Structure formats: structure tokens, C-alpha cells
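job 3f2a | input accepted
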Amino acid sequence: MRFLSFLPLALLFASPGTAQDTAPSARAPKPKLVVVISIDQFSADLFAQYRNRFTGGFARLLDGAVFPSGYQSHSATETCPGHSTIMTGDRPARTGIVANEWYDFAGARPGEVYCMEDERQGTYKDYVASDLHLRVPTLGERMKDADPAVRTVSVAGKDRAAVLMGGHKIDELWFWRDGKGFISYAGRAVPASVARANSVAWSAIDKPGAAFAEPAWCKTIDRPILANGRTVGAGRFERAAKAEPAWKASPVFDSAIFDLATSMVRDMRLGRGRSTDILTIGASATDYVGHTFGTEGSEMCIQLANLDRTLGKFFAMLDATGVDYVVALTADHGGNDIPERERERGVPGAARVATALLPRVVGTAIAGDFGLKGQLLYGVVNGDIWIDPALSPADRTRVRDEAARRYRASPQVAAVFTHDELVAAPLPAGPPETWSLIQRARASFVPERSGDLLVFLKPRITAITVKNDPTAAIATHGSIWDYDRRVPILFWRRGMKGFEQPLSVETVDIAPTLAGLLGFPLAPGAVDGRCLDLDNGPGSTCR
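job 3f2a | predicted structure (543 res):
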């Protein structure tokens, strides 16, 4: 979807019925601070399940412009691709961020590449965080190019959230790194706000964590269940001392992230300069909770109740500054619950993927049958698969065709597309819920980065095998299906007349919508998204 340039917005908050409603001299002033929040793995299903329970920050956002059927419309429903859409206005096919990881056998360090690393430095396990692979600018970058006085700040629980929403040109960039705390690129001075945040965080991690109180409305889903060697479903986030992973998979991680964002707002006096400032925040705990405990037990219920309070506290702080600010909140992807619990709750077909479908297993079997050496296939079963480049062209074709045949024969596989088929497929258009599976895959396909095959599991097949490992993730996302694609998109500004639009929109619409609100011109075709009109009346915030 391509749209015309944005001009300064029509009056959004004027009294109804006045002659000035469309007069240029009466246009509402631009907000001084734009706050964009991504809640990792906050699906549209979770939003619908708990929206009537919220009393804090989420409740405030429900008084604004509510789009409950937002879409991360592409197939690669992972953290890197999803975050790359939010502030760029572009789908992954354009941002270049096709997955959390991909294989580049001809690169500076042949092999697996993390989306947020500079593989010319470090190793895959000890990587150097970088914006190298992001191919397009963010809204903050565009604004900063036009007006260097614009300040852009990004804080998150993951580097891929902070970097991909902040972009290439950023004043302050801070993200959590395991064992190190909140860090940034090498050579950046550590401000007092970050030093304080790290001191508070490590002090909390070093101590045992007490159980959280459980809201009464969580008790209906509070039930223990065994999933892949771990009992979940009735937890309260108790944790031992020095248990950093458990600290991250709990409400206190988001509290630490928003406390750092609060310090940045206060110390930098964001929104109080002559230009509009941009603050992006990646709240990561919901994703860790989902992977560790699933989405439908007491743990997620307690997590969202506490996040609601954390958001309320953060918005109250912004109110106290007196700054005119606008908020946009969404998610990088959705998520799916553990199949063990889904089977108990009316979904008998929910299952874990068969070990026989893992690329290394399929590749090794093909190698044995064809008299070849090595595992031949690399990647993941629910997404991109790469073929060993050392094979001859003829063998690569044979391996590709045989792998596609085996995957298509599996009762757990919904679709298999070859690289050639995706190159030939047109870019998708129209409402994202109407897209075919190959259109969804095309939206996150980049020929020089994506796999030789893309394999997608059927609905409700979790891409984690059966295993007895109490430390491993038990639930995940990353599928081509709408429970992973659909996310809420919420906008709020003081004085706006709220509304709810149940029809589908996309996360790529967020950046052009904010651009329209800010009166910032985007050239026709500059982004994939479109401006959403936030004026609940005859006026428009889009031009």
C-alpha cells in the first residue's frame, strides 16, 4: 500500500462545529514527544482476553484510537522482523530483516548470522550489536535528518528491539545484555540514568524474589500442567538469588526497562526542546514469560496485570512533566500457548513438531540416501531452510526437490515454497487477513538472505520438539498463522476523541500515522504502510 505525502495535520482537538476546524491557522500543535512502545509477544488474543481487566496504563490507551486487529502481516513472526516494521513503515521484504537469524555462507564470517550483529567483528555467540543489517531508515532518523535538534532515544530489554525501533542515528540507545546489564554500542558514555538502572537491577537479581500477588480474576486459569519436563500454569514468579533468567521472565524486568525510560525522560528533559523528540521502548518480559510458561496460565495473567500498573505509573510520570505527548503501543508478534494445555482446553489437534522434521534430521537422511556427506540442510522447521552451498548445482537441485517432497508429505506441514517460487511471487497488497500463504511469506522474503526452502507447519503445531529439558522454552511463535500475526495497535493523546476500528490494519501503518500527526512529509511510495486517520470526525490527521 503506497500513499501520498503527509502535510501538517488538520485540527484534531478543536471544539466541534467551529469554522476553524479545517482552517490552516487553527491546526493543532505537533506533540512534543512521541512515545512508541512494543510489548514483545503481546498478541491480539491476549489483548482481547484481558482488556476488560485493565485499570492502569492499558485502560488509558483504550480511551484513544483502538485497532484490535493489527497485523504483523508477514510470515516471519519473530522479534527481529516484527520490530523492524514498527518505526520504519516497511515490511521485512524491504527492511532486510527476514528472521532472527539467517545463514550467509559467503559472508565475512560464513555461517549463521544474528539480525543485530556485525559479523565482521566478534563471533556468533559473543557478537557485536549493530544496525548493519537494517536497510531502511526509521521515522526518528528521517526526522533527525530534516531537523538535527530532534532527539531519538531507545531503551529495551533486547538489543533487537532497541536498535530496530531506534534506527541508525540515535542519541541514546540502551538494551539489556545477559550478564552485563543495560549496555550500548562500544565507546558510548554511560549516563547516570543507566548507571542507576544497572545498580538497581543487579541488586534485585542478587536477592531472592518473593511471589507476586495473584489477582482474583487470574484464579480461573490457575492450574498446574506438565510441559516438556517442567510444571507450569500456577506460578507466582518466586525466584532464587542470582537467577537472572528468572528475573527477566517476570514483571520486574519490564519495571526495570520503564524505570530506565523514566530516567531518560527526566534527565534529558525529553519533549521540552524546540523540536519533537522520539522515545521508543521495548518491553520484553511478556515474551520471556510466554516462552517459559506459555500464555494461558497464572504467570501470563500476573505479568499483564503488573505491566498494566507499570504503564500507568509511566504515563502518570509523563503527565507530571506537562509535555504534550502521543503514545503508540503495539507488539512485534503474537504467540501460541503450550499444546499440552491447549489439548485440555478443546484443541485436541495441538501438538509439538516431530523430531523427524528438523532440518538437520531431514538433511542427514537425504545425505544417506543420496550418498552425500554432511547434514545438507540448515535453519528451522517453521521458516527458512538453507542448502549446503558446497554441493554441486545438480546436487543442490536434487536435495531441494527431495527435501520439499519429504516436507510436503508430512501431516504436520501446511506449505513448502522454494526460493524460485518466492522470487516469482508478487509483493502482497490488500487486507492482510486475505493474503495467501505465499503472499505472507513473500512479505518477509529477501532473495539474497532468505532460505532455499521455506517450510510452514500447520496451525497449532508448536515448533518445539518433545523433550525433557526444564531449562528450555516450552512455547513459541514464528508461525504463518494469525495467532502469531495479529497484534493490537493503540494510539493515545490527551484530548483526542477515541474510537475503535475492528477492521485490519498493519504495524507498518504506525510510522506514517505518526508522521501525519507530526505534519512530517513522506514522499509517495517511501514506505509500505499508510496513514491511519486518528481524527474521529470530519477532519483528518492524514493529508
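job 3f2a | The longest strand covers residues 486-493.
job 3f2a | closed
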